[in-house]
Amino acid sequence: MRNLLDRFRGAGGTSGSSGAGTFRADFTASLVVFLVAVPLCVGVAVASGVPAELGLITGIVGGLVTGFLPGSSLQVSGPAAGLTVLVYEAVEQYGVAALGVLVLISGLLQLAMGALGLGRWFRAISVAVVQGMLAGIGLVLIAGQLYALADTKAPSSGLDKIFSIPGLIGDVAGSADALKAVAVGAGTIVVLVLWPRFRQGAKVLPAPLAAVALATAATAIFDLPIARVEVKGLLDAVQPPGGSEFQALAEVGVIGTVLAFTLIASAESLFSAAAVDRLHDGPRTDYNKELMAQGAGNTVCGLLGALPMTAVIVRSAANVQAGAKTKASRVLHGVWLLVFAVLFPSALGIIPVATLAGVLVYSGWKLIPTKDLVPLWKTHRGEAIILIVTAGAIVITNMFEGVIIGLLMAVAKTAWETSHVHVEVSGREDEGVDGAGAGSGSGSGDKPLHVRVRGNATFLRLPKLLDELEGLPHEREVELDLTGLRHVDHACEMALATWTERHNAVVKRGAALEERIPA
Protein backbone atom coordinates (compact mmCIF):
# COMPACT_ATOMS: atom_id res chain seq x y z
CA MET A 1 0.00 0.00 0.00
CA ARG A 2 2.89 2.32 0.77
CA ASN A 3 4.28 1.91 -2.76
CA LEU A 4 0.84 2.57 -4.22
CA LEU A 5 0.50 5.74 -2.18
CA ASP A 6 3.94 6.89 -3.31
CA ARG A 7 2.96 6.48 -6.96
CA PHE A 8 -0.26 8.43 -6.50
CA ARG A 9 1.29 11.17 -4.35
CA GLY A 10 1.72 14.42 -6.20
CA ALA A 11 -0.61 13.47 -9.04
CA GLY A 12 -3.18 15.94 -8.02
CA GLY A 13 -2.76 16.88 -4.42
CA THR A 14 -1.15 19.73 -2.61
CA SER A 15 2.45 19.50 -1.69
CA GLY A 16 3.31 18.54 1.83
CA SER A 17 0.24 16.43 2.54
CA SER A 18 0.97 13.21 4.39
CA GLY A 19 0.47 9.85 2.68
CA ALA A 20 -2.07 8.63 5.23
CA GLY A 21 -4.03 11.89 5.14
CA THR A 22 -4.03 11.94 1.34
CA PHE A 23 -5.24 8.34 1.09
CA ARG A 24 -7.98 9.00 3.66
CA ALA A 25 -9.25 11.97 1.62
CA ASP A 26 -9.09 9.96 -1.61
CA PHE A 27 -10.88 7.01 -0.01
CA THR A 28 -13.76 9.22 1.14
CA ALA A 29 -13.97 11.00 -2.21
CA SER A 30 -14.02 7.67 -4.08
CA LEU A 31 -17.12 6.58 -2.17
CA VAL A 32 -18.90 9.83 -3.04
CA VAL A 33 -18.01 9.48 -6.72
CA PHE A 34 -19.13 5.84 -6.68
CA LEU A 35 -22.53 6.82 -5.29
CA VAL A 36 -22.90 9.49 -7.97
CA ALA A 37 -21.72 7.16 -10.73
CA VAL A 38 -24.01 4.18 -10.13
CA PRO A 39 -27.33 5.77 -11.19
CA LEU A 40 -25.69 7.69 -14.02
CA CYS A 41 -23.92 4.62 -15.45
CA VAL A 42 -27.13 2.61 -15.36
CA GLY A 43 -29.28 5.47 -16.65
CA VAL A 44 -27.02 6.26 -19.61
CA ALA A 45 -26.93 2.58 -20.59
CA VAL A 46 -30.71 2.19 -20.47
CA ALA A 47 -31.20 5.42 -22.44
CA SER A 48 -28.66 4.19 -25.02
CA GLY A 49 -30.67 1.03 -25.65
CA VAL A 50 -28.10 -1.40 -24.22
CA PRO A 51 -28.05 -3.60 -21.08
CA ALA A 52 -27.58 -1.66 -17.85
CA GLU A 53 -24.44 -3.65 -17.00
CA LEU A 54 -22.60 -2.19 -20.00
CA GLY A 55 -22.82 1.23 -18.38
CA LEU A 56 -21.23 -0.17 -15.22
CA ILE A 57 -18.49 -1.85 -17.27
CA THR A 58 -17.60 1.48 -18.88
CA GLY A 59 -17.55 3.11 -15.45
CA ILE A 60 -15.27 0.35 -14.13
CA VAL A 61 -12.86 0.77 -17.06
CA GLY A 62 -12.97 4.53 -16.58
CA GLY A 63 -11.76 4.03 -13.03
CA LEU A 64 -9.33 1.13 -13.28
CA VAL A 65 -7.78 1.91 -16.68
CA THR A 66 -8.21 5.59 -17.56
CA GLY A 67 -8.11 6.58 -13.89
CA PHE A 68 -4.67 5.04 -13.42
CA LEU A 69 -3.09 6.71 -16.49
CA PRO A 70 -1.50 10.19 -16.56
CA GLY A 71 -3.24 13.21 -18.05
CA SER A 72 -5.74 14.94 -15.79
CA SER A 73 -5.28 14.24 -12.11
CA LEU A 74 -8.79 14.52 -10.71
CA GLN A 75 -11.36 14.18 -13.49
CA VAL A 76 -13.39 10.97 -13.58
CA SER A 77 -14.37 9.06 -16.74
CA GLY A 78 -17.33 6.86 -17.56
CA PRO A 79 -20.42 6.68 -19.80
CA ALA A 80 -21.72 10.18 -20.47
CA ALA A 81 -25.12 11.62 -21.27
CA GLY A 82 -23.45 13.61 -24.04
CA LEU A 83 -23.02 10.49 -26.19
CA THR A 84 -26.36 8.87 -25.37
CA VAL A 85 -28.15 10.09 -28.49
CA LEU A 86 -25.33 9.05 -30.81
CA VAL A 87 -24.98 5.61 -29.18
CA TYR A 88 -28.73 5.02 -29.37
CA GLU A 89 -28.74 5.86 -33.08
CA ALA A 90 -25.75 3.57 -33.68
CA VAL A 91 -27.35 0.67 -31.79
CA GLU A 92 -30.64 1.15 -33.65
CA GLN A 93 -28.87 1.12 -37.01
CA TYR A 94 -26.06 -1.42 -36.55
CA GLY A 95 -27.05 -3.42 -33.47
CA VAL A 96 -25.51 -3.84 -30.01
CA ALA A 97 -22.93 -6.32 -31.32
CA ALA A 98 -21.38 -3.64 -33.57
CA LEU A 99 -21.00 -1.17 -30.72
CA GLY A 100 -17.73 -2.75 -29.58
CA VAL A 101 -16.11 -2.21 -32.98
CA LEU A 102 -17.19 1.44 -33.11
CA VAL A 103 -15.82 2.15 -29.64
CA LEU A 104 -12.62 0.15 -30.25
CA ILE A 105 -11.69 2.04 -33.42
CA SER A 106 -12.57 5.35 -31.74
CA GLY A 107 -10.23 4.48 -28.87
CA LEU A 108 -7.39 3.62 -31.26
CA LEU A 109 -7.91 6.93 -33.09
CA GLN A 110 -7.75 8.80 -29.77
CA LEU A 111 -4.50 7.01 -28.92
CA ALA A 112 -3.06 8.01 -32.29
CA MET A 113 -4.17 11.64 -31.95
CA GLY A 114 -2.67 11.88 -28.49
CA ALA A 115 0.61 10.35 -29.66
CA LEU A 116 0.73 12.86 -32.54
CA GLY A 117 0.22 15.75 -30.11
CA LEU A 118 -3.23 16.73 -31.38
CA GLY A 119 -4.81 16.94 -27.93
CA ARG A 120 -4.09 20.64 -27.48
CA TRP A 121 -5.80 21.46 -30.79
CA PHE A 122 -9.17 20.52 -29.34
CA ARG A 123 -8.92 23.70 -27.29
CA ALA A 124 -9.25 25.59 -30.60
CA ILE A 125 -12.82 24.35 -31.16
CA SER A 126 -15.32 27.17 -30.87
CA VAL A 127 -16.96 27.24 -27.45
CA ALA A 128 -20.25 28.16 -29.13
CA VAL A 129 -20.10 24.95 -31.18
CA VAL A 130 -19.42 22.87 -28.05
CA GLN A 131 -22.24 24.57 -26.14
CA GLY A 132 -24.54 24.11 -29.12
CA MET A 133 -23.55 20.45 -29.33
CA LEU A 134 -24.34 19.93 -25.66
CA ALA A 135 -27.60 21.88 -25.97
CA GLY A 136 -28.68 19.77 -28.96
CA ILE A 137 -27.82 16.59 -27.08
CA GLY A 138 -29.76 17.87 -24.09
CA LEU A 139 -32.86 18.65 -26.16
CA VAL A 140 -32.90 15.25 -27.89
CA LEU A 141 -32.13 13.50 -24.60
CA ILE A 142 -34.99 15.23 -22.81
CA ALA A 143 -37.40 14.56 -25.68
CA GLY A 144 -36.48 10.87 -25.72
CA GLN A 145 -36.60 10.37 -21.96
CA LEU A 146 -40.07 11.90 -21.72
CA TYR A 147 -41.30 8.68 -23.35
CA ALA A 148 -39.29 6.55 -20.90
CA LEU A 149 -40.96 8.48 -18.08
CA ALA A 150 -44.24 7.03 -19.30
CA ASP A 151 -42.85 3.53 -19.97
CA THR A 152 -43.36 4.10 -23.71
CA LYS A 153 -40.97 3.50 -26.61
CA ALA A 154 -39.68 6.72 -28.13
CA PRO A 155 -39.68 7.47 -31.89
CA SER A 156 -36.31 7.14 -33.61
CA SER A 157 -35.55 10.66 -34.91
CA GLY A 158 -35.16 13.82 -32.87
CA LEU A 159 -37.90 15.68 -34.73
CA ASP A 160 -40.35 12.79 -34.36
CA LYS A 161 -39.69 12.73 -30.63
CA ILE A 162 -40.53 16.42 -30.34
CA PHE A 163 -43.55 16.43 -32.67
CA SER A 164 -45.02 13.33 -31.00
CA ILE A 165 -45.03 14.87 -27.52
CA PRO A 166 -48.66 16.13 -27.79
CA GLY A 167 -49.76 12.58 -28.63
CA LEU A 168 -47.69 11.27 -25.72
CA ILE A 169 -49.48 13.63 -23.35
CA GLY A 170 -52.84 12.35 -24.56
CA ASP A 171 -51.77 8.73 -24.12
CA VAL A 172 -50.49 9.38 -20.59
CA ALA A 173 -53.67 11.17 -19.60
CA GLY A 174 -55.70 8.12 -20.61
CA SER A 175 -53.58 5.51 -18.81
CA ALA A 176 -53.44 5.04 -15.04
CA ASP A 177 -50.21 3.01 -15.23
CA ALA A 178 -48.52 5.65 -17.38
CA LEU A 179 -49.56 8.36 -14.93
CA LYS A 180 -47.97 6.39 -12.09
CA ALA A 181 -44.72 6.03 -14.04
CA VAL A 182 -44.69 9.74 -14.85
CA ALA A 183 -45.31 10.55 -11.18
CA VAL A 184 -42.27 8.47 -10.19
CA GLY A 185 -40.09 10.16 -12.83
CA ALA A 186 -41.35 13.64 -11.96
CA GLY A 187 -40.74 12.95 -8.28
CA THR A 188 -37.18 11.96 -9.12
CA ILE A 189 -36.61 15.29 -10.88
CA VAL A 190 -38.06 17.20 -7.90
CA VAL A 191 -35.67 15.42 -5.52
CA LEU A 192 -32.72 16.17 -7.82
CA VAL A 193 -33.61 19.86 -7.80
CA LEU A 194 -34.36 20.20 -4.08
CA TRP A 195 -31.91 17.75 -2.50
CA PRO A 196 -28.80 19.99 -2.79
CA ARG A 197 -30.64 22.62 -0.71
CA PHE A 198 -30.55 20.25 2.26
CA ARG A 199 -26.85 20.65 2.87
CA GLN A 200 -26.57 18.08 5.63
CA GLY A 201 -28.31 15.42 3.57
CA ALA A 202 -26.32 16.32 0.44
CA LYS A 203 -23.08 15.79 2.34
CA VAL A 204 -24.13 12.25 3.30
CA LEU A 205 -25.86 11.16 0.07
CA PRO A 206 -25.42 12.62 -3.45
CA ALA A 207 -28.58 13.90 -5.10
CA PRO A 208 -28.74 11.29 -7.94
CA LEU A 209 -28.47 8.38 -5.53
CA ALA A 210 -30.96 9.93 -3.11
CA ALA A 211 -33.47 10.48 -5.91
CA VAL A 212 -33.11 6.93 -7.26
CA ALA A 213 -33.25 5.40 -3.77
CA LEU A 214 -36.41 7.31 -2.78
CA ALA A 215 -38.17 6.57 -6.07
CA THR A 216 -37.22 2.87 -5.86
CA ALA A 217 -38.46 2.67 -2.28
CA ALA A 218 -41.76 4.37 -3.17
CA THR A 219 -42.26 2.01 -6.11
CA ALA A 220 -41.68 -1.03 -3.90
CA ILE A 221 -43.81 0.19 -0.98
CA PHE A 222 -46.82 1.00 -3.16
CA ASP A 223 -46.19 -1.95 -5.50
CA LEU A 224 -46.49 0.28 -8.56
CA PRO A 225 -46.97 -1.57 -11.89
CA ILE A 226 -44.15 0.19 -13.75
CA ALA A 227 -41.14 -1.13 -15.71
CA ARG A 228 -37.92 -2.01 -13.90
CA VAL A 229 -34.37 -2.25 -15.19
CA GLU A 230 -33.63 -5.61 -16.84
CA VAL A 231 -30.62 -7.41 -15.36
CA LYS A 232 -28.47 -9.96 -17.22
CA GLY A 233 -25.35 -10.17 -15.07
CA LEU A 234 -21.94 -8.64 -15.70
CA LEU A 235 -20.36 -11.49 -17.66
CA ASP A 236 -23.47 -12.13 -19.74
CA ALA A 237 -23.50 -8.47 -20.83
CA VAL A 238 -19.94 -8.54 -22.16
CA GLN A 239 -19.98 -8.91 -25.97
CA PRO A 240 -16.49 -8.76 -27.52
CA PRO A 241 -16.70 -7.85 -31.22
CA GLY A 242 -16.22 -10.61 -33.77
CA GLY A 243 -15.03 -10.73 -37.37
CA SER A 244 -18.45 -10.04 -38.84
CA GLU A 245 -18.72 -6.79 -36.89
CA PHE A 246 -15.37 -5.58 -38.27
CA GLN A 247 -16.68 -6.08 -41.82
CA ALA A 248 -19.17 -3.29 -41.16
CA LEU A 249 -16.27 -0.80 -41.18
CA ALA A 250 -16.45 -0.83 -44.97
CA GLU A 251 -19.73 1.11 -44.80
CA VAL A 252 -19.52 4.89 -45.12
CA GLY A 253 -22.11 5.39 -42.39
CA VAL A 254 -20.07 3.37 -39.91
CA ILE A 255 -16.97 5.46 -40.60
CA GLY A 256 -18.99 8.63 -39.97
CA THR A 257 -20.25 7.22 -36.66
CA VAL A 258 -16.70 6.31 -35.60
CA LEU A 259 -15.47 9.82 -36.39
CA ALA A 260 -18.40 11.29 -34.48
CA PHE A 261 -17.61 9.11 -31.44
CA THR A 262 -13.95 10.10 -31.61
CA LEU A 263 -14.34 13.84 -32.07
CA ILE A 264 -17.23 14.36 -29.68
CA ALA A 265 -15.80 12.15 -26.91
CA SER A 266 -12.39 13.80 -27.23
CA ALA A 267 -13.77 17.33 -27.24
CA GLU A 268 -16.07 16.67 -24.29
CA SER A 269 -13.25 15.06 -22.29
CA LEU A 270 -10.73 17.83 -22.91
CA PHE A 271 -13.23 20.61 -22.28
CA SER A 272 -14.16 18.83 -19.07
CA ALA A 273 -10.46 18.70 -18.14
CA ALA A 274 -10.18 22.46 -18.62
CA ALA A 275 -13.22 22.98 -16.39
CA VAL A 276 -11.89 20.63 -13.69
CA ASP A 277 -8.53 22.43 -13.71
CA ARG A 278 -10.37 25.57 -12.61
CA LEU A 279 -11.80 23.73 -9.60
CA HIS A 280 -8.50 22.80 -7.94
CA ASP A 281 -4.97 24.14 -7.51
CA GLY A 282 -3.10 20.92 -8.30
CA PRO A 283 -1.16 20.07 -11.47
CA ARG A 284 -2.75 21.12 -14.75
CA THR A 285 -3.92 18.67 -17.39
CA ASP A 286 -1.55 17.37 -20.05
CA TYR A 287 -4.02 17.31 -22.94
CA ASN A 288 -2.12 14.86 -25.12
CA LYS A 289 -1.65 12.36 -22.28
CA GLU A 290 -5.30 12.76 -21.26
CA LEU A 291 -6.40 12.08 -24.83
CA MET A 292 -4.28 8.92 -24.84
CA ALA A 293 -5.75 7.88 -21.47
CA GLN A 294 -9.26 8.30 -22.90
CA GLY A 295 -8.19 6.34 -25.97
CA ALA A 296 -6.84 3.49 -23.84
CA GLY A 297 -10.09 3.36 -21.89
CA ASN A 298 -12.23 3.34 -25.02
CA THR A 299 -10.05 0.66 -26.57
CA VAL A 300 -10.68 -1.60 -23.57
CA CYS A 301 -14.40 -0.72 -23.59
CA GLY A 302 -14.53 -1.64 -27.27
CA LEU A 303 -12.89 -5.01 -26.63
CA LEU A 304 -15.55 -5.67 -23.97
CA GLY A 305 -18.43 -4.46 -26.17
CA ALA A 306 -19.27 -1.70 -23.69
CA LEU A 307 -20.36 1.93 -24.05
CA PRO A 308 -17.91 4.67 -25.12
CA MET A 309 -16.48 6.77 -22.32
CA THR A 310 -15.67 10.41 -21.81
CA ALA A 311 -14.59 12.45 -18.87
CA VAL A 312 -17.78 13.43 -17.00
CA ILE A 313 -17.96 16.84 -15.37
CA VAL A 314 -20.65 15.79 -12.85
CA ARG A 315 -18.51 12.99 -11.39
CA SER A 316 -15.31 15.03 -11.71
CA ALA A 317 -16.77 18.01 -9.84
CA ALA A 318 -18.08 15.66 -7.13
CA ASN A 319 -14.58 14.18 -6.85
CA VAL A 320 -12.94 17.58 -6.35
CA GLN A 321 -15.63 18.85 -3.98
CA ALA A 322 -15.35 15.68 -1.88
CA GLY A 323 -11.71 16.54 -1.19
CA ALA A 324 -9.84 14.18 -3.55
CA LYS A 325 -6.09 14.77 -3.61
CA THR A 326 -4.74 12.31 -6.19
CA LYS A 327 -5.84 9.93 -8.92
CA ALA A 328 -6.31 7.22 -6.26
CA SER A 329 -9.89 8.43 -5.71
CA ARG A 330 -10.97 7.75 -9.27
CA VAL A 331 -9.21 4.36 -9.34
CA LEU A 332 -10.95 3.35 -6.11
CA HIS A 333 -14.32 4.46 -7.47
CA GLY A 334 -13.76 1.92 -10.26
CA VAL A 335 -13.03 -0.74 -7.63
CA TRP A 336 -16.32 -0.01 -5.82
CA LEU A 337 -18.24 -0.18 -9.13
CA LEU A 338 -16.67 -3.57 -9.85
CA VAL A 339 -17.52 -4.90 -6.38
CA PHE A 340 -21.11 -3.64 -6.72
CA ALA A 341 -21.56 -5.15 -10.20
CA VAL A 342 -20.17 -8.54 -9.13
CA LEU A 343 -21.78 -8.90 -5.70
CA PHE A 344 -25.06 -7.01 -6.03
CA PRO A 345 -26.23 -7.18 -9.67
CA SER A 346 -29.79 -7.98 -8.60
CA ALA A 347 -29.99 -4.57 -6.93
CA LEU A 348 -30.32 -3.07 -10.40
CA GLY A 349 -33.48 -5.06 -11.09
CA ILE A 350 -35.54 -3.14 -8.54
CA ILE A 351 -34.80 0.31 -10.04
CA PRO A 352 -37.74 1.77 -12.02
CA VAL A 353 -36.92 2.81 -15.59
CA ALA A 354 -38.95 5.99 -15.02
CA THR A 355 -36.66 7.18 -12.23
CA LEU A 356 -33.58 6.74 -14.43
CA ALA A 357 -35.41 8.68 -17.13
CA GLY A 358 -35.98 11.43 -14.57
CA VAL A 359 -32.23 11.52 -13.80
CA LEU A 360 -31.44 11.86 -17.51
CA VAL A 361 -34.10 14.52 -18.13
CA TYR A 362 -32.45 16.53 -15.37
CA SER A 363 -28.99 15.82 -16.85
CA GLY A 364 -30.22 16.86 -20.29
CA TRP A 365 -31.53 20.15 -18.91
CA LYS A 366 -28.14 20.83 -17.29
CA LEU A 367 -26.51 20.42 -20.72
CA ILE A 368 -28.49 23.38 -22.10
CA PRO A 369 -26.71 26.71 -21.35
CA THR A 370 -29.88 28.56 -20.37
CA LYS A 371 -28.04 31.09 -18.17
CA ASP A 372 -25.40 31.90 -20.80
CA LEU A 373 -27.61 32.32 -23.86
CA VAL A 374 -29.11 35.78 -23.14
CA PRO A 375 -25.78 37.42 -22.10
CA LEU A 376 -24.11 35.80 -25.12
CA TRP A 377 -26.82 37.20 -27.41
CA LYS A 378 -26.26 40.69 -26.02
CA THR A 379 -22.46 40.67 -26.29
CA HIS A 380 -21.59 38.22 -29.09
CA ARG A 381 -24.66 37.71 -31.25
CA GLY A 382 -22.77 35.76 -33.89
CA GLU A 383 -21.62 33.21 -31.32
CA ALA A 384 -25.17 32.88 -30.00
CA ILE A 385 -26.45 32.22 -33.53
CA ILE A 386 -23.82 29.48 -33.99
CA LEU A 387 -24.91 27.90 -30.69
CA ILE A 388 -28.60 27.94 -31.64
CA VAL A 389 -28.03 26.68 -35.20
CA THR A 390 -25.75 23.85 -34.00
CA ALA A 391 -28.32 22.72 -31.44
CA GLY A 392 -31.14 22.94 -33.97
CA ALA A 393 -29.14 21.06 -36.61
CA ILE A 394 -28.50 18.20 -34.17
CA VAL A 395 -32.21 17.96 -33.40
CA ILE A 396 -33.20 18.07 -37.08
CA THR A 397 -30.46 15.84 -38.54
CA ASN A 398 -28.12 13.92 -36.23
CA MET A 399 -25.16 14.47 -33.96
CA PHE A 400 -22.38 14.25 -36.54
CA GLU A 401 -23.99 16.42 -39.21
CA GLY A 402 -25.11 18.97 -36.62
CA VAL A 403 -21.58 19.40 -35.25
CA ILE A 404 -20.14 19.69 -38.78
CA ILE A 405 -22.69 22.42 -39.59
CA GLY A 406 -21.73 24.25 -36.39
CA LEU A 407 -18.01 24.02 -37.16
CA LEU A 408 -18.52 25.29 -40.71
CA MET A 409 -20.52 28.24 -39.38
CA ALA A 410 -17.80 29.04 -36.85
CA VAL A 411 -15.12 28.94 -39.56
CA ALA A 412 -17.22 31.13 -41.88
CA LYS A 413 -17.87 33.64 -39.09
CA THR A 414 -14.18 33.82 -38.22
CA ALA A 415 -13.20 34.23 -41.87
CA TRP A 416 -15.75 37.02 -42.29
CA GLU A 417 -14.64 38.87 -39.16
CA THR A 418 -10.93 38.61 -39.94
CA SER A 419 -11.24 39.64 -43.59
CA HIS A 420 -11.56 43.36 -42.88
CA VAL A 421 -10.23 45.47 -45.72
CA HIS A 422 -9.83 49.25 -46.05
CA VAL A 423 -9.29 51.34 -49.19
CA GLU A 424 -7.26 54.58 -48.97
CA VAL A 425 -7.30 56.92 -51.96
CA SER A 426 -4.85 59.80 -52.43
CA GLY A 427 -4.47 62.28 -55.31
CA ARG A 428 -8.08 63.47 -55.49
CA GLU A 429 -8.62 67.00 -56.76
CA ASP A 430 -10.48 67.98 -53.59
CA GLU A 431 -7.42 67.22 -51.41
CA GLY A 432 -5.34 70.12 -50.17
CA VAL A 433 -1.83 70.82 -51.36
CA ASP A 434 -0.51 69.08 -48.26
CA GLY A 435 -2.33 65.87 -49.20
CA ALA A 436 -0.81 62.86 -50.86
CA GLY A 437 -1.72 64.21 -54.31
CA ALA A 438 -1.32 67.68 -55.79
CA GLY A 439 -3.80 70.37 -54.89
CA SER A 440 -6.42 71.90 -57.10
CA GLY A 441 -4.96 73.79 -60.03
CA SER A 442 -1.67 71.88 -59.89
CA GLY A 443 -2.48 69.43 -62.61
CA SER A 444 -3.69 66.78 -60.19
CA GLY A 445 -6.48 65.87 -62.58
CA ASP A 446 -3.89 64.43 -64.98
CA LYS A 447 -2.11 62.30 -62.40
CA PRO A 448 -3.18 58.76 -61.48
CA LEU A 449 -5.05 58.13 -58.26
CA HIS A 450 -3.00 56.23 -55.72
CA VAL A 451 -5.21 53.50 -54.19
CA ARG A 452 -3.76 51.64 -51.21
CA VAL A 453 -5.57 48.56 -49.89
CA ARG A 454 -4.93 47.49 -46.28
CA GLY A 455 -6.09 44.54 -44.16
CA ASN A 456 -7.03 41.03 -45.31
CA ALA A 457 -8.41 40.76 -48.83
CA THR A 458 -10.40 37.54 -49.26
CA PHE A 459 -13.18 36.51 -51.60
CA LEU A 460 -15.65 37.16 -48.77
CA ARG A 461 -14.92 40.91 -48.96
CA LEU A 462 -14.42 41.08 -52.73
CA PRO A 463 -17.91 42.47 -53.57
CA LYS A 464 -17.48 45.30 -51.04
CA LEU A 465 -13.95 46.03 -52.29
CA LEU A 466 -15.00 46.19 -55.94
CA ASP A 467 -17.95 48.46 -55.08
CA GLU A 468 -15.53 50.95 -53.49
CA LEU A 469 -13.22 50.83 -56.50
CA GLU A 470 -16.14 51.32 -58.91
CA GLY A 471 -16.95 54.51 -57.04
CA LEU A 472 -13.65 56.12 -58.05
CA PRO A 473 -13.61 58.77 -60.83
CA HIS A 474 -13.86 57.09 -64.23
CA GLU A 475 -11.62 59.67 -65.96
CA ARG A 476 -8.55 59.08 -63.75
CA GLU A 477 -6.07 56.24 -64.01
CA VAL A 478 -5.40 54.19 -60.88
CA GLU A 479 -2.16 53.03 -59.29
CA LEU A 480 -3.07 50.05 -57.08
CA ASP A 481 -0.85 49.49 -54.03
CA LEU A 482 -1.32 46.09 -52.28
CA THR A 483 1.71 46.31 -49.97
CA GLY A 484 -0.56 47.13 -47.01
CA LEU A 485 -2.34 43.77 -47.21
CA ARG A 486 -1.48 41.18 -44.57
CA HIS A 487 -3.16 38.52 -46.70
CA VAL A 488 -4.67 38.38 -50.17
CA ASP A 489 -6.14 35.23 -51.65
CA HIS A 490 -5.84 34.25 -55.29
CA ALA A 491 -9.43 35.19 -56.21
CA CYS A 492 -9.03 38.68 -54.77
CA GLU A 493 -5.61 39.26 -56.33
CA MET A 494 -6.81 38.29 -59.80
CA ALA A 495 -10.01 40.35 -59.51
CA LEU A 496 -8.11 43.48 -58.40
CA ALA A 497 -5.50 43.15 -61.16
CA THR A 498 -8.20 42.62 -63.80
CA TRP A 499 -10.22 45.60 -62.56
CA THR A 500 -7.18 47.91 -62.55
CA GLU A 501 -6.11 46.88 -66.05
CA ARG A 502 -9.63 47.31 -67.43
CA HIS A 503 -10.19 50.65 -65.65
CA ASN A 504 -6.92 52.17 -66.88
CA ALA A 505 -7.52 50.91 -70.41
CA VAL A 506 -10.93 52.64 -70.48
CA VAL A 507 -9.40 55.89 -69.17
CA LYS A 508 -6.65 55.84 -71.86
CA ARG A 509 -9.18 55.22 -74.64
CA GLY A 510 -11.28 58.10 -73.39
CA ALA A 511 -8.26 60.41 -73.31
CA ALA A 512 -7.28 59.39 -76.85
CA LEU A 513 -10.75 60.18 -78.17
CA GLU A 514 -10.68 63.63 -76.58
CA GLU A 515 -7.37 64.43 -78.32
CA ARG A 516 -8.82 63.54 -81.75
CA ILE A 517 -11.86 65.76 -81.34
CA PRO A 518 -11.03 69.33 -82.55
CA ALA A 519 -11.55 72.11 -80.07
Topology:
Blueprint: H1 2-8, H2 19-47, H3 52-64, E1 76-78, H4 84-94, H5 99-115, H6 127-149, H7 158-163, H8 165-173, H9 176-194, H10 199-204, H11 207-221, H12 234-237, H13 243-247, H14 252-277, H15 287-304, E2 310-312, H16 313-321, H17 328-343, H18 353-367, H19 370-379, H20 381-396, H21 399-418, E3 421-426, E4 449-457, H22 462-470, E5 478-481, E6 485-488, H23 490-516
Parallel strand pairs: 4-5, 4-6
Antiparallel strand pairs: 1-2, 3-4
| Mean pLDDT score | 82
Overall SS class: mainly alpha
Quote the distance from N terminus to C terminus. 108 Å
Q: How many helices in DSSP terms?
A: 23
Provide an overview of this structure.
It contains 23 helices and 6 strands. The protein has helices at 2-8, 19-47, 52-64, 84-94, 99-115, 127-149, 158-163, 165-173, 176-194, 199-204, 207-221, 234-237, 243-247, 252-277, 287-304, 313-321, 328-343, 353-367, 370-379, 381-396, 399-418, 462-470, 490-516; strands at residues 76-78, 310-312, 421-426, 449-457, 478-481, 485-488. Strands 3, 4, 5 and 6 form a 4-stranded mixed β-sheet that branches. Strands 1-2 form a two-stranded antiparallel sheet. The longest helix has 29 residues, at 19-47. It is elongated and about 110 Å long.
